[in-house]
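User: Could you go from structure to sequence for me? I need the amino acid at each position, not a summary. Structure tokens:
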């Protein structure tokens, strides 16, 4: 009786045509992946990369708004911007607005979310009323406050002061002492709904058994808020803080419509000065240099926050 040995398994890879099957699969995946990502890459390069590089090139020239000249002048625009007192004053106004608006927007958004989360009567109405202003265009919001809230003697703000026995007739948008505060109040009323929505979603995702266990241990409302709610919202607060900082640094609409940068340029932000330098002063190259200095500032702020957040996470772990 004879037996035949089974054929030895081959170690040669399977082939499709003249190519290994694995190489063919990889090639197909690469081709299909490129097909899917190519539209995004084209749009990304066309509307972000190219304008970024074009703006850098323009900032190194004395280009005007008409495009009649664009002579290379090196870093002269940057040197002039760093010694321009209008750049520093408008930059200070931007930073001051950011300081005044960021903390209230975060705190008020959190408080409104806590109230809406615990309300049981017509909760949907409260949520809609607090979020609805955020859906309004900036022009509508600014004109509403400009014509209804802030007019002297007959505006709602002055009427409210009179009700409390205070002296009305404050120049809300014409007095250097109150103009920036008035813009901050308008911005808080308009944009706090976005932070409110983020906090409300985060509150609804906190496990309920944490609160039940705390209640069984005798923890009161304040202790539950301090030791459960706020720690659970830490990551959301970080996101809200970063988004709010970036949004406040980019302020333009409210100031341009409500005060035009006045009185005495006390509310003019850096973006409005960029606009004035480029489209009123016809110096597009100089305006580009200012905008890239401001862009570098935003990048520095973002990197600092990223570093602080990373150290905090490492410390907690």
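Assistant: Here is the amino acid at each position, in order:
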């Amino acid at each position: 009786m004879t037996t035949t040995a089974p054929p030895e398994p081959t170690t040669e890879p399977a082939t499709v045509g003249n190519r290994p099957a694995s190489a063919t699969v990889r090639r197909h995946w690469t081709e299909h992946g490129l097909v899917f990502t190519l539209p995004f890459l084209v749009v990304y390069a066309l509307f972000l990369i190219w304008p970024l590089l074009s703006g850098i090139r323009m900032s190194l020239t004395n280009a005007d708004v008409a495009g009649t000249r664009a002579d290379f002048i090196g870093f002269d625009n940057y040197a002039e911007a760093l010694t321009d007192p209008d750049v520093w004053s408008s930059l200070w106004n931007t930073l001051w607005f950011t300081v005044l608006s960021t903390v209230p927007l975060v705190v008020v958004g959190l408080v409104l979310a806590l109230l809406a989360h615990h309300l049981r009567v017509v909760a949907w109405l409260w949520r809609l009323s607090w979020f609805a202003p955020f859906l309004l265009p900036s022009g509508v919001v600014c004109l509403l406050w400009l014509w209804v809230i802030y007019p002297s003697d007959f505006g709602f703000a002055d009427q409210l002061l009179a009700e409390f026995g205070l002296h009305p007739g404050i120049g809300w948008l014409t007095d250097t002492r109150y103009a920036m505060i008035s813009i901050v109040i308008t911005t808080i009323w308009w944009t706090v709904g976005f932070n409110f929505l983020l906090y409300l979603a985060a509150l609804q995702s906190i496990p309920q058994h944490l609160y039940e266990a705390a209640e069984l241990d005798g923890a009161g409302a304040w202790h539950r808020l301090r030791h459960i709610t706020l720690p659970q919202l830490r990551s959301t607060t970080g996101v809200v803080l970063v988004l709010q900082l970036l949004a406040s640094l980019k302020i333009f609409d409210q100031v341009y419509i409500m005060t035009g940068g006045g009185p005495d340029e006390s509310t003019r932000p850096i973006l409005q000065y960029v606009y004035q330098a480029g489209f009123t002063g016809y110096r597009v190259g100089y305006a580009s240099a200012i905008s890239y200095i401001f862009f570098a500032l935003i990048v520095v702020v973002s990197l600092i926050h990223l570093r602080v957040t990373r150290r905090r996470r490492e410390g907690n772990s």
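One structural detail worth keeping in mind: Residues 21-59 form the longest helix (39 residues).
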